[in-house]
Sequence to fold (1432 residues):
Amino acid sequence: MTHQARTYWRNLEELAETPEFAAIVEQEAPRFRDILNAFDRRRFLQLMAASMALGGLSACGPEAKRRQLLPYVEEPENVIPGRNRYYASAITQDGYAIGVLIAHQMARPIKVEGNPDHPASLGAASAIMQASILQLYDPRRAQSIIGHGNITAWEGFVSALHDRRNALKARHGAGVRILTGAVSSPSLTAQLAALEQQFPEMRWHQWEPLHRDNEYASAIASFGRPVERIFDVSKADIIFGVESDLISATPGWLAYARHFAAARRPTETGGAMSRVYAIESTPTLLGAKADHRLAMRPSEIVASLRELAALVGAGPQKWSEQNQNDARAAWLRAAADDLIKHKGSALVHAGREQPVEVHVLTDAINGALRGFGNTVRLIAPVTAGASSKRESISQLAEDMASGKVDTLLIINSNPVYDAPADLDFAARLSRVPFSVALTLYEDETALACTWRIPATHEYETWGDARAFDGTITIQQPQTRPLYGGHSPQQVLAILLGDLTPDSYTLERNHWRQRAQQEGRGDFEAFWHEALRVGVVPNTAASALSLTPRPATAFELPPNVGNSGSKLQALFRPDEGIWDGRYADNPWLLEMARPFTRLTWDNAALIAPSTAKRIDLETHDVVEISVEQTKLRAPVYVLPGQAPDCITLSLGWGRTAGGLSVGVGFDAYRLRRSAHPWITAITSITKTGERYRLATAQSQDRVLGRDLIRESTLEQLNSSPETVVRKGKPESLYPGYQYPDRAWAMAIDLNSCIGCQACTIACQAENNIPVVGKDQVLAGRIMHWLRIDRYYSGPADAPDIAFEPMPCMHCENAPCEVVCPVHATVHDHEGLNLMVYNRCIGTRFCSNNCPYKVRRFNFYAFAYTNDRPHESWNPQVTVRGRGVMEKCTYCIQRIRTTQIAAAREDRKLRDGEVVTECQQSCPTQAIIFGDQNDRGSAVAKRKATPINYVLLEEVNTLPRTSYGALIRNPNPAIRDERS
Amino acid sequence: MAMTLTSELPAAPVVAPDVTLASLSEQVSGRVLMDRAPLWWWAGFGFSFTLFTLLVIQMAWLFVNGIGVWGVEIPVAWGLAIAEYVWWIALASGGTIVSALFFLTRSPWRSATNRIAESMLLSAAPCAGLMPIMHLGRPGLFYWLFPYSTVMGVWPQARSPLWWDFICLIYYILMSIMYYYTGILPDLATVRDLARSRFKQIFYGVLALGWRGSSEQWRNQRTVYAIMSAIMAPMVISVHSVVGLDFAGGLTPGWHDTQFPPYFFFGAVISGTAVIIMLTIVVRWGYGLQDVLTAYHFNAMAKIMLVGSVMLAYAYVWEAFGPIYGSDVAQKTEFFQRAFGFTAPAFWSEKILTVVIPQLLWLPAVRRSRTLLFLISGGIIVGMWQERFVFTTSSLEHNYMPSYWGRYYPTFWDWACLAGTIGLFLTLFFLFLRFAPIVSIAEMREVIEEERSK
Fold:
């Protein structure tokens, strides 16, 4: 392989080694680059000869035992084309498991659904969970083991690490460091514990950029020990959110959102409905649903919460004595009265971005409101070593700087990109002589390490993880590693002396031992049941009987620290790409963010009043400096944002790792260990440049249309018939009759929290292509189901409404009459169908659709999407160029269920057909079924007085109807808005 | 009507007094039979053909890459192509109106200009016909609109205005070709008789279909021509109304309006006449036909144009009155966006070009000035293009769903398509100019006889 100082080539083999050629190979056939780099001609011939000679022996290898080729003469049992098989597993977020069921078609994983038996999912699946299937197939994932710049075989790495191990043994593991994310996996924790035993000097560090340090630190202050707070949202009549991620990100949010929405459907609860207050700096999903919301700067939140604590008797009285007369004080007093009135059924929740003090106050208030034992439950931490992630990574960085670290294993973490900027992690990492990165992508950290090992996706390996309430799921692989990855357990096993680690054996051994200890009886039976259900029974953590020390709030420093600067920056997780780990996922990149509706970019979010003051508008590029660091970012003016607070979402502006390189700006550069979430902005200057942001929504308001019908609980209970005015549809023609079934959908606006899970679920199920930023800008985004976000009221404190928009399946469908070739037609059950093969692309149907739910393939989008063919859903046609498409009410699911029922010679049951959006929805906002069946859930929802259809005056008779948005305002708070 | 219109016209002769039957035949046929075309013809044809090649390139690019190369999007799924379709078909319809409607009214000025009108119509119709096909997502499958029994067993969807439009367009183009041919038959025979080269004798001989000029043939030709005129005149109104229904049949605010069919017809009258005036001025100058195309003709056509602009003004009033008087919020918003939003410059300049400036035609001096006529006509054509563009896109941009409002920006290829079809139009017209008598010799003979008998 070494050719020194030659400037010419003599034969084609040499030519083939030019970087240009390598680049071509890389681009055209990434799977062959290993071969290109690993062999020269002689080596290739040697190996060919050897493999010819040993060909017969290969059947004796260890692989052969596991691989089985089956002729199709006798069909494998239960592998039926067109029918889904489901396998339970789990995906982790923040280290916590969320149970999934993965649908397989012909033995390949196609689709992620929530596991109804899992406490963190209850059947729902978030947008990120939905998109994880695309990540599994992502061809841009790391695919080769690279050691010191050369592609190496796994065995090469094993021997290198094993050699290292022997050397380390002598010095008890001094200099060995392992860096992981938050770990809830019992088997991985056990391995790490075993390692710590073998190498007493070894240190295990953890880093999560979106850490929940403040929650744990405050728990120590409040309860004397780190605990997890678990919420019983169904018992909460009053919820007070402080920049709360209760229904958007906190571990267990899918389940919380389900209970939250269930308590806010007055037509189903007999007229009762919870009331939500929110104080926050940037709109959160909970804030959007709040009946009363106040936007304030991060530094004002502490003061407000102190005031609230004093008002409910959880803090010194003098805190509430300032600012007696302003509107905010009145607002807080009303909220406090309301909370006091609901002692035992009130819940205060603060988001992870809030400082320790806020969490301490939250505990104190919850304590005063008798929340513990009612709405809040405490359990022992679910993740292992739940100490401060910030301290952990700082310690590691310090040790690296002082040369104490000579062996560093980084497992599924990307500190070079996301560690606090002041740690200068990259420079310090370069001083570590032996560093290994086990990562899914060749990301910033992998490139900075001496060894990089492709990691397995969570769906490719055996493993386990715990949910927010402690429940354990054993993760089973859904496929063999597609790109030759290895699991963390395997890598750690090498350090433990296992030279041929196999994740299946490791996992089973761990559980065999544990099942024995716990006396779970027959292991095989236990193992099978755990895998089948996706939950290990009776593993939920039991509640700790702790209450906050009553005095904690009183011991807080008397004054709220003032940051000095007027402008503050608030760092937030991105709704799609989270901390950046999903930044290579085109579904998530193109997902319109709930509030900004931005795709393919992040932006500096700024309040309308502040923007006006410093003369900024959306698309302006500003330079934000925090101390010495400068960052250029486009501005997005966001109604509802707190004045003088700029929100920066993390995870963008990657420099390595694939698709997202150079997309958006990297807010981590401004993030320091001392100020992980909220920091003072030194200056902000307008550069004069413009940057085009691509949003998926045009107007922010309904412009006089009756799209969002809104009312109050009081009106609903006193005169329900006035909530929505209904016209009488008139027509000269007799309507079509649907004597058999009439498919219909009901969407409850009150339940919809705008989380975008349905949009991405629909994209996954229905093979909806990604179009890219340019095409989003050109108005060609393809989502069949979008969630419109409308504002009403003043720009700085608007009311926010989300409205999911699938196809309305109008009975008088305007699209059908204008199609000259019968490409869109009605069926006998009332479905508005799209016959792709007949479509010639006049696009008149889209022009004529008042709801604008039709999407057109202006280019062959699906054919240019970079994803393996096997990842498409074989149940749904992949549409070609020049064809119209739209929501079908998941006709493939309807037909599959109908056929199954017909085979069993029975009628379809209500709830048997579940559309994909309905399936994924955490809040059950979407109900689908037969509206002819009076007893069906959908018919019942449609019979409620709050049911209405969009643009009734156009007389399209939509089958999709909406439940009006009901707010439950506190009569004691008078808003300026009408 | 015929009498009033004629009697209002000035005493200027329809044809110069020194034109005789023989000199007319010589003059008109001579242009067809000349061996070498004049330089201005080559210049014009060369320019047109260059533009036409742009259309070919544009089509190739479009068909290879897909409709995405244009600026169309959701919600503005129809863009320049459809606006231009309406524009071209209006120009073509104007030709039919001049030639068929005024044949029925026996207007003497029509005889000299009808061939120019028909040539224009046959040049514009392919441009119109190409647009809807190019704009399809899968243009190769346009023939699925034909009502023929396919293996799919699916007939076209008869409720769709697009299908009505397709049928109308096909009949219109076929009828126009036949109408043109019926009218030109005696003239082709004249050219054949005057041709000296063998090739031209055979070429025009074949085209003349054995026309001998017998009274029987004349009687048949006149009868057929009259019947076809009687069919064509109402047909062009219905064809253009159906084009209007493409929009009026839609649910989009700004389109959903019963005035569209007559509105479109008014547009056709004014823009068709305008383009005929422009072409007549060019032909008259280029071929030196001052004797045949006199001030009388321009005066008459200018008045038609004036009538058209007044009719259009009436339509514009209703364009505003409907949404403002009506109760539909969406209609109202759409109109105000159209008039005062992004499209405002195009909206107001279009009103000025098509309604305000043409009011100058009330002045006889303006009607006599061919320069002013040429400029006003050009302005009308540009204004009508803007009008089509504004109502096509603005309505879609400001649809019922505020969340899905859009903005249409034409791309380079959109403009290439416009330039290319202008090239196709001019190319075809220059070919007509060169190879077919551009003034109806047979009808002019009648006029000369009538003048003489006065």
In short: DSSP finds 16 helices and no strands in chain B. The radius of gyration of chain B is 23 Å. Confidence is low (pLDDT under 50) at residues 1-7 of chain B. Residues 35 and 229 of chain B are 34 Å apart (CA to CA).
